[in-house]
Each structure stands twice: as C-alpha cells, then as structure tokens.
Amino acid sequence: QVQLVESGGGLVRSGGSLTLSCVASGFHLDLYAVGWFRQVPGKEREGISCISNMIGSTDATKWYAESFQGRLAISRNDAENTVYLQMDNLKPEDTGIYYCAAGRLSATIMIPVTMGGGKYAMDYWGNGTSVTVSS
User: Fold this and answer.
1) Residue 93 in 3-state DSSP?
2) Cα–chain-centroid distance for residue 20?
3) How far apart are CA 44 and CA 65, in angstroms?
4) What is the pairing mode between strands 129-134 and 10-13?
5) Of 11, 55, 56, 99, which has the fewest Cβ atoms less than 10 A away?
6) CA-CA distance, 76 to 83, in Å (whole number)?
7) How big is the chain by its Cα radius of gyration, in Å?
8) DSSP-derived pairing of the beta strands 62-64 and 10-13
9) Strands 124-125 and 96-103
C-alpha cells in the first residue's frame, strides 16, 4: 500500500521545538522531492519547506518559507524512506495541521510548486499531523 505518514506533532509552548517525520511506504521516496505544508482553518494551504531528491547529486536542494527562515531544518534519510522537519523557536501563529507530500519534481520545479501549496503536482499526500503552539 502506497502511503505517507506524518508524525511528531503535538502541543508545545512558544519557543519550543518539534521534529516532524514523514515516512513513505509502498514506493521509493528517494526518487521524489518532498514538501511540507501547513493548513490553518479558513486559510489556503501554504508550503513551508521542501527538499529535492538526490539523484545525480551528493547534496539536496532545500527551500524554506520566509516566515520560517532560520527556524526550520529539513533533511532526508533515504535508507529509512523518511524526511524530517526540525522546527525551532515555535510561535503561536505556527499552529496548524502539517502535511508532507512527495512529487517527481526537479529541484528547480519543486520550489514554486511548494510555494504554491503543492496543488496538482504532488503525487502522494499524508494525512497530516497537528501542531499546537501555546503562548
């Protein structure tokens, strides 16, 4: 069964940290770019970070949304079919449902796709993990 499963969300105080995980099963995640997205009720889904695959390269391209600059670190462990998102210095406005998604996208294309909320271009989506940041 092909699926992505997020975990690592929870309730944290302002200034705290969380590490989200995105585990793939049923397909080889190393072939895919992976994005992280946040959904807040009443607002459009927004892309917050993405990481390219490492096909033909020893380094992955990474991108972060400006509102999260300096507070996020995305990484991947293809041996574990997993992508991680470390989130530091969390703020109450970071509260939301966080989703990961995988797409067969080049490093160049994945950034505008992620910035646009991942519409129409991602092949697989997880069901999300909830992050709540209290003040």
Assistant:
1) helix
2) 8
3) 15
4) parallel
5) 56
6) 4
7) 14
8) unpaired
9) antiparallel
- CA–CA gap between residue 107 and residue 46 (Å, rounded): 18
Element at 76 (helix H, strand E) = strand 72-77
- Say which DSSP state 92 is in: G
CA distance 10 to 72: 16
Token pair of 41 as six digits: 């009720």
Number of other CB atoms surrounding residue 76 within 10 Å: 22
Phi/psi region, residue 127 (left: phi>0; alpha: psi -120 to 50; beta: rest), is alpha
> Of how many residues is the chain composed?
135
Q: What is the pLDDT of residue 69?
A: 82
Copy the structure tokens of residue 2.
């092909």
Query: Could you read off the pLDDT of 82-99 as tens digits, one per residue?
Result: 999 999 999 999 999 999
